[in-house]
Each structure stands twice: as C-alpha cells, then as structure tokens.
Amino acid sequence: MSFVSPGTILVLGGARSGKSRFAEKLVADCGLERHYVATGRAWDEEMRDRIAQHRADRGDLWTTHEEPLDLVDCLSSIDSEGRAILVDCLTLWVTNLMMEELDMAAEFAALAEFLAGAKARIVLVSNEVGLGIVPENRMARDFRDHAGRLHQMIAATAAEVYFVAAGLPLKMKG
C-alpha cells in the first residue's frame, strides 16, 4: 500500500505494558472530542469486571462504543473532524474475527482503506505478540500471524507508530 493515513497512530506493546494508558493520553492531549471503541467481549465475569474498570478509569470525558466485529462500520459512523477515536484493541478484534471465521484479509483491507480517508484522529492499540516463542498449536500460530500482518499493514500507512514497554513509549515512526 502506498497511501499514508495522516491522522492514524498505532500503539503496540505487550500485556500490561502501559500502551492503553499512553494511547489514552495521546487522545486526551490532542484536545479533540474523545471516542473510545472497545473491541473486547465479556465472555466471563472476570472480563466483565475488566471492562467495567476500564470504563470507570476513563470517566465521563469519553463516549464509548462497543464493537467486537464490525470495526469499520463503527468507525465510519463516528468519523468526523474535531474527533479523536481510540480503538482498544486490535488483537481482541482479530480474536473475534477468527472466532466468527470471517475473512481476515478482507477485514484488514477494509480497515486500511477506511483509515486512509478518515477525518478523525485515530489511535489504534494492539498487543505485539510476535516477540515470543512459536506457539504450540495451529490456532495460536494463526492468531500470531494474523496480528503480525495487520500490524505491518497499519504501521506501513500510519503517521506515527509507538512501542510501549514498562510504561515507556518508544517512537518508531513519525
């Protein structure tokens, strides 16, 4: 892909690395109307508690949209100048797409195409899962591969890319 998504920022990092907190600060600091797109699903009580805690931590300054599958339609419905949209997180979205056996390449291409023309500033958070050992089962390997391909696609066109570890952001692009 040869286009650049000028308002797109990708924030990668491991679990509990501080990437979401850093992404939220990027959105808050830009001074635009804040929208939060949550892709997680509450499969059990522990996940319901995590979602509730995240919502409480963000407070009333954010408008929350919960969309586990149709990310592009959700983003399209709120895309507007003067807004900043935080998507947390792409790896949960990948999981949801895999569980529904959807066409990953088509979904990824649709997201990249949307980002190329987006009016809002969009910050995407995702777990970097390619730094560890090769997973022992096919589904886990497929997940790692899908996430890696998606990250490469978004990073290639994003205006900025950050890697966060131990709460410290490293600017990789932009």
From TrEMBL:
It is an enzyme of class 2 (transferase). Keywords: ATP-binding, Cobalamin biosynthesis, GTP-binding, Kinase, Nucleotide-binding, Nucleotidyltransferase, Transferase. The active site is at 54 (gmp-histidine intermediate). Pathway: Cofactor biosynthesis; adenosylcobalamin biosynthesis; adenosylcobalamin from cob(II)yrinate a,c-diamide: step 5/7; Cofactor biosynthesis; adenosylcobalamin biosynthesis; adenosylcobalamin from cob(II)yrinate a,c-diamide: step 6/7. NCBIfam families: PRK05800.1. PANTHER family: BIFUNCTIONAL ADENOSYLCOBALAMIN BIOSYNTHESIS PROTEIN COBU, PTHR34848. This is Bifunctional adenosylcobalamin biosynthesis protein. It comes from Rhizobium tubonense.
